Amino acid sequence: MTGTGDGICRGRVVVVTGAGRGLGRAHALAYAAEGAKVVVNDLGVGLDGKPGAGSPAQQVVDEIRAAGGEAVAHGGDIATSEGAASLVAAALDTFGRLDTLVNNAGFLRDRMLVNLDEDDWDAVMRVHLKGHFLPLRHAAAHWRAEAKAGRRPDARVVNTSSGAGLLGSVGQGNYSAAKAGIVGLTLVAAAEMGRYGVQVNAIAPAARTRMTEATFAETMAAPENGFDAMAPENVSPLVVWLGSSASAGVTGRVFGAEAGRITVMEGWRPGPTADKGARWTPAEAGEATLKLLAESEPPQPVYGA
Ligand SMILES: NC(=O)c1ccc[n+]([C@@H]2O[C@H](COP(=O)([O-])OP(=O)(O)OC[C@H]3O[C@@H](n4cnc5c(N)ncnc54)[C@H](O)[C@@H]3O)[C@@H](O)[C@H]2O)c1
Question: Which of 86, 130, 161, 175 does the annotation list as catalytic?
Answer without folding.
Answer: 175
